[in-house]
UniProtKB/TrEMBL annotation:
InterPro entries: HTH_MarR-typ, Tscrpt_reg_MarR-type_CS, WH-like_DNA-bd_sf, WH_DNA-bd_sf. Residues 25-160 form the HTH marR-type domain. It comes from Saccharopolyspora elongata. The keyword Transferase does not apply. PROSITE patterns: HTH_MARR_1 (PS01117), HTH_MARR_2 (PS50995). This is MarR family transcriptional regulator. PANTHER family: TRANSCRIPTIONAL REGULATOR, MARR (PTHR42756), TRANSCRIPTIONAL REPRESSOR OF EMRAB OPERON (PTHR42756:SF1). SMART domains: HTH_MARR (SM00347).
């Protein structure tokens, strides 16, 4: 069964046969890129159905998985949610306007604020995250469990190749020693 990447590779083999042996990375990178675009579009559509932007869902889930009281400093949120510093203030403002988060004074440092999920934010993330999991399962093909495990392992190896290693502090927004 051929896909678009196979077609592209065939076209290159016809156009530049001397490169036929060198095309093998396209089979992997091309598919990863296409999958990323397809999944990004599907997830964006899903979040929009629930009145959320992709980045809002990312912030909500980052705060929710940080544990009670579901709050982080803007800097920790920046690290854990993988957003740029220039957008943090604007995004927090927009989420505050939707009653998803609130800014609270840091009891340990009165000069600092923390971003906390509101009760409405917790309700939204808890409801949508469950639907999100079902949506992601729907997006994937009907593989055998062993196939999913194999694919997961190979994708993990690929990410590790690029230096993507677990840092529980970054993943939770908490210092690594407390994670």
């Amino acid at each position: 069964m051929a896909d678009t990447v196979d077609m592209i590779m065939d076209l290159w083999r016809d156009e530049a046969p001397e490169l036929a042996e060198d095309l093998w990375p396209v089979a992997i990178v091309g598919r990863v890129q296409r999958l990323a675009r397809i999944l990004d579009r599907a997830l964006k559509d899903f979040y929009a159905e629930h009145g959320l932007e992709v980045w809002e869902f990312d912030v909500l889930t980052t705060l929710r998985r940080s544990g009670p009281p579901y709050e982080l400093t803007p800097g920790a949120l920046l690290e854990a949610a993988m957003i740029t510093s220039s957008t943090v203030t604007n995004r927090i403002d927009r989420m505050e306007a939707k009653d998803l988060v609130e800014r609270v004074r840091d009891p340990g440092d009165r000069r600092s604020v923390r971003v906390r999920l509101t009760a409405h934010g917790i309700e939204v993330v808890d409801r949508v995250f469950r639907l999100h999991l079902a949506n992601e399962a729907r997006l994937l093909p009907d593989f055998e469990p062993a196939d999913y495990q194999h694919l997961t392992g190979e994708l993990r190896r690929l990410l590790e190749h690029f230096g993507d290693r677990l840092d529980r502090g970054r993943a939770t927004g908490k210092p690594a020693e407390n994670a």
